[in-house]
Amino acid sequence: MKKRVVLEVKNLTVYGNSRTILRNISFSLEEGERLLVVGRSGSGKTTLLRSLVGIAQEVFGLTVSGSIHVYGERVSNSAKASKHFFYVPQEPWYSIAAPYPILELIFDDRCNDCLESVERFSRKLGIHEKLYKASTDLSAGEAQRIALLQALISKYHVVLIDEVTSYLDPEAKRSVVEAVKAISEQGTAVIIVDHDIELWRGKVDRVLHIDKGAIRLYDDPAGTPIALDLEKLKYELKNLRQMMKYSEGASVLITENVWFKYPDSDTYILKDVHMTVHQHEITWIKGKSGRGKSTLLKVLAGVLKPSRGQVKRFVNEVQLVSENPLHYISNPIVGEELQWDNNIAALVELDDKLNVSIMFLSSGERRRLAIASAFQKQPKLLLIDEPTVGLDPWNAIAITKLLSMLQSKGSAIVVASHGEEFQYIASRVVEV
Amino acid sequence: MTSISKILSRLTQLVLRSLFLYGLIEARKGSTLLQLLFTAMALVAVVRSEFAALCILFVVFVVYIVYGIEKYLKYSLVLALLPAIWMSLSNMLIIYLKGGDIIRAFLSVFLRAEAGSAVVLLLLHTLNISELCFILYKLSPITSFATALFWRLASQLIKETTEMLYIHGLKGEKTWKTLAMLFIRGEEVVQYFTEGIHLKQYSYKPKVVYSTRVIAIQIILLVVAMLLQFL
């Protein structure tokens, strides 16, 4: 049986910031179809999603021309788009307006007597226990699955998910793929923006590759030009591993029998942790989301006190760069943060942005700035939480190279991350 | 790290834990009106008599145990210690100058301040957000939406403040710089939310969640507060 066309986009052109971001884009989607959108950072992937739902015009002030129809009805603004589209932005936390996820779900006008569906699908997505928690305490994967749960029970016609797996560990990625499958099986068309083309092979119907604002459609993610780029990056990382030199220096930190539990919890998130950190080493704390990687890092830094056991720090010069680099940066201008040190700025390729406000930096640039600033303090111990999370592969590898360079200069570095790229530079792995 | 940053970081952590420790607990499924009535009557009783203040403190303690949220009480009372001690010491000084019983003066104000704080914090801990949003929606949908978002944002920003203060403390930065950066972060959070929930404003329609057990507890509390008026 022939499926109905849900979404039809014709000659979509987006203009803003004195350039054409997307030009003459046309494509259509049938009921239940899954479309993967790939392309390098800045190619216009997010702008495409924002244009479909009217946000590009109404929030970001871009000029959009062309036509968008859903089931034949023209969608010309966000009010009309809200009847058909469900949008999950790159930072999934900010798509939840209610203080508790369950309220977010039942406050949706489409959710009438939907508690049974909430119960059923939340169990299916593995987030049933999180429904009554505070929205602030959700991890990225959990926030994303709450958003997808809302899309699932409220039965929107088209679901748009931006950078769907950039914050997720491998297991959470697989559960998101399952959620997308469940959504499309009920007839909803899904557009997914992501860099992880391996993950989506065989799981999407078509791939839309954007390059410099123009698109081309493919059947297989592996056939896109970006697949070749990613292969080259992998090769680069393997080379990096061979070039790195490790030497075990003096101990800078030791944990003995460390246990930790949060005050609202009855269970320990850290249990009997023993670890030693040496100079000239990169220690990689790895593990799934929610297993306590960030908590361990905060305990090592002293932000949190262990419930039992002790952390012995043998150095005073400790720096902590948290998952959000803005928590570390303490000056509004790049140059001020780096004390106008051109050499340090050049190390992280920010030497041409010394006079730029941090508000105008991309997330990759902010992260490089925070790490460079921490490095400038010449800490004996540098603790970094999820340095590559939310970044595209190119930025993630730039950060990995930067850390390997810092290690060669003598700092002890502890990285908490689920990013597999750290296997290439870590000299010690601690699994939580 | 600077001691001011460390103290402020611990203080904000205490505020976070005393206000936003738990998720949507059962205690938040009662009637806001009943809870407001209890709060008003309990505060009157606290002001009128020290014994009533002691009784109210005991009742509030029992309520937290019944709801299974006694950790809230622990952090709240610790937080309330700051104004309570300050007010008690001020009163003690005045009574000392007047030549009265300073121990009694201290305890009288301290007990009332702690009991009063406990009653107000119980109101905050049991406020039914769904009911509040529902009522406000009838008056102004945008105010209702903003209320839900405020409750969501408040805990997020306090949590981030705690971390920023500590991290900047490790960096050796002055505390005012942290506060300045908090404004920048606040602006960024607003931008993210503007994008993330732009479509949701059109499908927002709050619904009320009640628990008969909680309403029954609130009625008992109200009766107790009324009886205490006669002490």
Principal-axes shape call of chain A:
globular
Count of runs of 4 or more consecutive helical residues of chain B: 9
Strand element count of chain B: 0
End-to-end gap of chain A: 50 Å
User: Main sheet of chain A, how many strands, which sense, barrel?
Assistant: 6 strands, mixed
Counted beta strands of chain A:
18
Tell me roughly what share of residues is in helical segments of chain B. Answer: over 70%
Structural class of chain B: mainly alpha
Number of helices of chain A: 14
Strand content of chain A: 25-35%
How much helix is in the residues of chain A?
25-40%
Ranges of chain B where pLDDT stays below 50 over 5 or more residues in a row are none
CA radius of gyration of chain A: 23 Å
Strand order of the largest sheet of chain A: 6-7-8-3-9-10
What does this structure look like?
The complex is a heterodimer of chains A (432) and B (231). Chain A has 432 residues and is α/β, with parallel strands linked by helices. Chain A has helices at residues 45-52, 55-58, 78-81, 101-106, 115-124, 140-154, 170-185, 197-200, 225-243, 293-301, 334-337, 342-347, 363-376, 393-408; strands at 5-16, 19-30, 34-38, 63-70, 73-74, 85-88, 158-161, 189-193, 206-211, 214-218, 251-260, 270-278, 282-286, 308-313, 318-321, 381-385, 412-416, 428-431. In chain A, the strands form 4 sheets. Chain A has a 6-stranded mixed β-sheet with strand order 6-7-8-3-9-10, sandwiched between helices. Chain A is globular. By secondary structure, chain B is mainly alpha-helical. Chain B folds into 2 domains: 1-25 and 129-208, no CATH class; 31-128 and 210-231, no CATH class. Chain B has helices at 3-20, 32-48, 50-67, 70-98, 102-126, 129-139, 141-171, 175-196, 212-228. In chain B, helix 3 (50-67) runs antiparallel to helix 4 (70-98), helix 3 runs parallel beside helix 5 (102-126) and helix 3 packs antiparallel against helix 9. The longest helix of chain B has 31 residues, at 141-171. Classes of the chains: A alpha/beta (432), B mainly alpha (231).
